[in-house]
Write a structure and sequence with these properties.
Oligomer: homodimer
Radius of gyration of chain A: 19 Å
Order of helices and strands of chain A: HHHHEEHHHHHHHHHHH
Number of helices of chain A: 15
CATH superfamily of chain A: Farnesyl Diphosphate Synthase
Distance between the termini of chain A: 19 Å
Largest interface: A-B, 55 and 55 residues
Mean pLDDT of chain A: 90
Chain lengths: ~325, ~325
């Protein structure tokens, strides 16, 4: 029998998939190759964790926003846009010039099926479509702009510390951003990973998009500054915990289960959390860190009481998952 | 002595460069490599024709918008954002997986200096920064959103016909878009170029971004639907004329003058306008087509009288230029 959190994730993923099906150009629309390449990667079996977090953050914040307006559809489409950004980053990361991965979630990567040129352009187009989707959200214009600024920061080149309690309209390069994390990760290859370096990479490369999924969900609900700050702290901790567990799974799981080459990250001395501690007890200490981060995340949403239970359950799932 | 149009372009380029200098992350901000790569390509000697067209369209429309508000700074930053999008597309086009060009405007291309991985990510980051810059424009929120939707369409995967007099909020894939044109261009390599195919590629790959530069300038001025429609027709014709002249210059100019390998397009039977007519009279007939398109563009802005003179002078320059 599926647990409550499994149900939340399953229904959230279905909701997201329906939106993505509607928002992505049909595979029968010219130019066919790029539309098929975009769909190949978007529908390659992702768990839609970012859209689910976005939706649950919206649902939570809706209960505390004084002027909450019904915006369920906007919350769903926002989640779909974030999933497009996540997919674009995976397509480009997998390219021969970057991580050179042939498999992703057990399926051939975009460039293996469609070639490098179409894969580069499919990633580009998914980024464009994500911003287009956000611009078209059915919500107040000022909310859309707040979300656009948050998300553009989160997928940009910044590698600075996560600003938990400041205004979100960071100057370019000052907030942690996905591309920035990717660059630092690339450039630090072969260097001995330090705790500070790995945390910086993780907070930027993975954490920023997870955090903004949750914060933007709050924006859609018209959340107060205090609520947004709490969601940002929650997201920052949950996002880092997610990536630590990802590092651990990469080491402990078999290749077949994960659908990618297990242990590959450590083999090339990439920056991973367990590598900072060293093996073998790096795994146990990493998992303990992840659990502590989740506890910190929970503390941030304590004032919301039981209304935060579903969001908390999903965050707990992020660190308890086995794949 | 510089002509009036040369002065318009020179001052417009300087204005754009100052904005880009301010908007791009400093080369001393970590991660350095990507910020230096972004600047390498953005400051590689582009003429800033799109920002100049955007600014002049804003200046023209401002004179006819009943509720015009001072928005010069927004018009300049919008132009800078469009130049970022143009530069991102050039960086990705030049990659070995696409056009494999070592030189652009006489300088080594981004991937030749920084490697393929950083070049891919620098293109990605310029797209992100462009949308971020637009989201931060100092203009009414609803105007920003109109512009974002227009621009996301113009750089997307669509290859449909340019809709001159319909609402601009096209569904994904229905309006001509830059990436769509790039894909059709790639896929038609080796095929004999037909007039319809080349026009489709040019209107999507080059024309859409030039058109939206002009239309978005009108939006910043709060232009009426009629004015926006006229600017859209003007831009569609001027953009196609620009690319036809580009094709001609590629054939007739020496490698050293253009800073890229001259004649390369025809050598691989790429889709060019003169190739449709066949050489040698393809060049003369192409130039005649470009002049006719400019005449059509001028007709669309006829009702604006002499207020359109500067915008017209720049469009005329696009087809009269020798490099």
């Amino acid at each position: 029998m599926a647990s409550h959190v499994q149900e939340l994730i399953r229904t959230g993923a279905e909701r997201t998939d329906r939106a993505l099906e509607r928002l992505l150009p049909s595979p029968d629309t010219a130019p066919h190759s790029i539309h098929r390449a975009m769909r190949h990667s978007v529908f390659a079996g992702g768990k839609r964790l970012r859209p689910v977090l976005c939706f649950e953050a919206w649902r939570l914040a809706s209960r505390f926003a004084p002027s909450a307006i019904p915006a369920e559809q906007a919350a769903i489409e926002l989640g779909a846009a974030i999933e497009m950004l996540h997919t674009y980053s995976l397509i480009h990361d997998d390219l021969p010039a970057l991580d050179n991965d042939d498999l992703r979630r057990g399926q051939p990567t975009c460039h293996k099926v469609f070639g490098d040129a179409i894969a580069i352009l499919a990633g580009d187009a998914l980024q464009t479509l994500a911003f287009h989707t956000i611009a078209r959200l059915d919500c107040p214009a000022i909310t859309t702009i707040d979300i656009l600024k948050e998300i553009a920061s989160a997928v940009g080149t910044g590698v600075g510390p996560a600003p938990a309690e400041v205004d979100f309209d960071f100057p370019a390069g000052q907030a942690p951003g996905m591309i920035g994390g990717q660059v630092v990760d690339l450039e630090s290859e072969g260097q001995p990973p330090t705790a500070a370096l790995v945390e910086q990479i993780h907070r930027a490369k993975t954490g920023a998009l997870i955090t903004v999924s949750i914060v933007a969900g709050g924006h859609i609900a018209g959340a107060s500054h205090d609520t947004l700050d709490r969601l940002r702290i929650f997201g920052g901790n949950a996002g880092l915990a997610f990536q630590i567990v990802d590092d651990v799974l990469d080491i402990t799981e078999e290749s077949a289960q994960l659908g990618k080459t297990a242990g590959k990250d450590t083999a090339v001395t990439k920056a991973t959390w367990p590598a900072v501690y060293g093996l073998p007890d790096g795994v146990a200490r990493s998992l303990a860190d992840a659990q502590q981060l989740i506890a910190d995340a929970f503390a941030a949403v304590e004032p919301f009481g039981t209304a935060a239970d579903d969001l908390k359950a999903i965050a707990q799932y992020l660190v308890d998952r086995k794949n």
